Amino acid sequence: MESYIKDKETLNQSRLERNVKSLSEIVDGWDRAAEEMAARVKYDTEDKATRAAHQRNKVQLELPFEPPLDRVMARAKVLRTAEKYVCKDRAAQHGDMEDNFQTIAKYWGIHLGTEVTATDVAVMMTLLKVARIKGNAAHTDNWVDGCGYLACGGELAGGDVE
Known about the structure:
This protein is an all-alpha fold. It has a domain of about 90 residues. The relative contact order is 0.07.
Protein backbone atom coordinates (compact mmCIF):
# COMPACT_ATOMS: atom_id res chain seq x y z
CA MET A 1 0.00 0.00 0.00
CA GLU A 2 2.81 2.36 0.86
CA SER A 3 4.35 1.80 -2.59
CA TYR A 4 1.00 2.54 -4.23
CA ILE A 5 0.67 5.83 -2.32
CA LYS A 6 4.25 6.82 -3.22
CA ASP A 7 3.62 6.02 -6.91
CA LYS A 8 0.41 8.05 -6.81
CA GLU A 9 2.23 11.00 -5.21
CA THR A 10 4.97 10.80 -7.86
CA LEU A 11 2.35 10.68 -10.61
CA ASN A 12 0.51 13.66 -9.12
CA GLN A 13 3.78 15.59 -8.76
CA SER A 14 4.63 14.86 -12.40
CA ARG A 15 1.17 16.04 -13.54
CA LEU A 16 1.50 19.19 -11.44
CA GLU A 17 4.93 19.96 -12.95
CA ARG A 18 3.54 19.46 -16.50
CA ASN A 19 0.59 21.74 -15.70
CA VAL A 20 2.87 24.43 -14.26
CA LYS A 21 5.07 24.20 -17.38
CA SER A 22 1.98 24.49 -19.63
CA LEU A 23 0.73 27.51 -17.70
CA SER A 24 4.16 29.10 -17.89
CA GLU A 25 4.19 28.63 -21.68
CA ILE A 26 0.71 30.17 -21.91
CA VAL A 27 1.79 33.19 -19.84
CA ASP A 28 4.91 33.58 -22.01
CA GLY A 29 2.68 33.51 -25.08
CA TRP A 30 0.46 36.19 -23.58
CA ASP A 31 3.53 38.32 -22.80
CA ARG A 32 4.73 38.00 -26.40
CA ALA A 33 1.26 38.86 -27.68
CA ALA A 34 1.11 41.91 -25.40
CA GLU A 35 4.52 43.09 -26.65
CA GLU A 36 3.42 42.64 -30.28
CA MET A 37 0.21 44.54 -29.57
CA ALA A 38 2.15 47.38 -27.92
CA ALA A 39 4.43 47.55 -30.97
CA ARG A 40 1.40 47.66 -33.28
CA VAL A 41 -0.22 50.42 -31.23
CA LYS A 42 3.04 52.38 -31.30
CA TYR A 43 3.29 51.83 -35.07
CA ASP A 44 -0.34 52.89 -35.60
CA THR A 45 0.22 56.13 -33.71
CA GLU A 46 3.34 57.12 -35.68
CA ASP A 47 2.98 59.75 -38.37
CA LYS A 48 2.64 58.70 -42.02
CA ALA A 49 6.17 59.72 -42.97
CA THR A 50 7.66 57.57 -40.22
CA ARG A 51 5.39 54.67 -41.17
CA ALA A 52 6.45 54.99 -44.82
CA ALA A 53 10.10 54.98 -43.78
CA HIS A 54 9.47 51.84 -41.70
CA GLN A 55 7.88 50.15 -44.72
CA ARG A 56 10.79 51.11 -47.00
CA ASN A 57 13.28 49.82 -44.46
CA LYS A 58 11.29 46.96 -42.97
CA VAL A 59 14.10 44.42 -43.33
CA GLN A 60 16.50 46.71 -41.47
CA LEU A 61 14.09 47.54 -38.67
CA GLU A 62 13.01 44.05 -37.67
CA LEU A 63 15.56 42.53 -35.32
CA PRO A 64 15.30 38.98 -33.97
CA PHE A 65 15.87 40.43 -30.50
CA GLU A 66 15.43 43.67 -28.63
CA PRO A 67 18.85 44.91 -27.46
CA PRO A 68 18.99 46.27 -23.89
CA LEU A 69 18.77 49.98 -24.66
CA ASP A 70 18.51 51.01 -21.04
CA ARG A 71 22.29 50.75 -20.68
CA VAL A 72 24.54 53.76 -21.12
CA MET A 73 24.70 54.63 -24.85
CA ALA A 74 24.77 51.10 -26.26
CA ARG A 75 25.82 50.71 -29.88
CA ALA A 76 22.26 49.76 -30.82
CA LYS A 77 21.02 53.08 -29.50
CA VAL A 78 23.58 54.99 -31.59
CA LEU A 79 22.59 53.06 -34.71
CA ARG A 80 18.85 53.35 -34.05
CA THR A 81 19.15 57.09 -33.48
CA ALA A 82 21.10 57.45 -36.73
CA GLU A 83 18.51 55.27 -38.46
CA LYS A 84 15.72 57.50 -37.16
CA TYR A 85 17.50 60.55 -38.57
CA VAL A 86 18.27 59.14 -42.01
CA CYS A 87 15.01 57.24 -42.52
CA LYS A 88 12.79 60.16 -41.55
CA ASP A 89 11.55 62.26 -44.46
CA ARG A 90 13.75 65.33 -44.11
CA ALA A 91 13.42 66.44 -47.75
CA ALA A 92 10.69 68.97 -46.87
CA GLN A 93 13.07 70.69 -44.46
CA HIS A 94 16.46 70.14 -46.10
CA GLY A 95 15.75 69.10 -49.70
CA ASP A 96 16.56 65.78 -51.34
CA MET A 97 19.67 64.15 -49.83
CA GLU A 98 21.18 63.09 -53.15
CA ASP A 99 20.63 66.55 -54.69
CA ASN A 100 22.21 68.19 -51.62
CA PHE A 101 25.27 65.95 -51.71
CA GLN A 102 25.71 66.57 -55.45
CA THR A 103 25.46 70.35 -54.93
CA ILE A 104 27.99 70.19 -52.10
CA ALA A 105 30.27 68.08 -54.33
CA LYS A 106 30.11 70.73 -57.07
CA TYR A 107 30.94 73.54 -54.62
CA TRP A 108 33.81 71.60 -53.07
CA GLY A 109 35.08 70.59 -56.51
CA ILE A 110 35.20 74.23 -57.64
CA HIS A 111 36.96 75.28 -54.44
CA LEU A 112 39.48 72.42 -54.57
CA GLY A 113 39.95 72.49 -58.34
CA THR A 114 39.21 68.78 -58.68
CA GLU A 115 36.22 66.53 -59.22
CA VAL A 116 34.30 65.61 -56.07
CA THR A 117 31.38 63.17 -56.08
CA ALA A 118 28.31 62.94 -53.85
CA THR A 119 29.83 59.78 -52.35
CA ASP A 120 33.02 61.76 -51.56
CA VAL A 121 30.82 64.25 -49.71
CA ALA A 122 29.41 61.45 -47.52
CA VAL A 123 32.95 60.25 -46.74
CA MET A 124 34.24 63.75 -46.05
CA MET A 125 31.30 64.58 -43.78
CA THR A 126 31.95 61.32 -41.91
CA LEU A 127 35.59 62.34 -41.54
CA LEU A 128 34.44 65.72 -40.20
CA LYS A 129 32.50 63.85 -37.51
CA VAL A 130 35.54 61.64 -36.80
CA ALA A 131 37.66 64.79 -36.32
CA ARG A 132 35.07 66.16 -33.91
CA ILE A 133 35.06 62.85 -32.04
CA LYS A 134 38.82 63.24 -31.56
CA GLY A 135 38.12 66.56 -29.85
CA ASN A 136 35.23 65.28 -27.73
CA ALA A 137 34.57 61.52 -27.82
CA ALA A 138 31.79 61.81 -25.24
CA HIS A 139 29.59 63.95 -27.53
CA THR A 140 27.18 61.33 -28.84
CA ASP A 141 25.80 63.38 -31.73
CA ASN A 142 29.08 63.04 -33.62
CA TRP A 143 28.90 59.24 -33.42
CA VAL A 144 25.26 59.24 -34.53
CA ASP A 145 25.86 61.71 -37.37
CA GLY A 146 28.90 59.72 -38.54
CA CYS A 147 26.74 56.60 -38.82
CA GLY A 148 24.12 58.61 -40.68
CA TYR A 149 26.61 59.98 -43.22
CA LEU A 150 27.97 56.50 -43.83
CA ALA A 151 24.43 55.20 -44.39
CA CYS A 152 23.74 58.00 -46.89
CA GLY A 153 27.02 57.24 -48.64
CA GLY A 154 26.09 53.58 -48.86
CA GLU A 155 22.79 54.53 -50.48
CA LEU A 156 24.50 56.89 -52.93
CA ALA A 157 27.09 54.26 -53.87
CA GLY A 158 24.23 51.89 -54.74
CA GLY A 159 25.91 48.78 -53.38
CA ASP A 160 23.96 45.73 -52.28
CA VAL A 161 23.27 45.43 -48.57
CA GLU A 162 23.07 41.89 -47.26
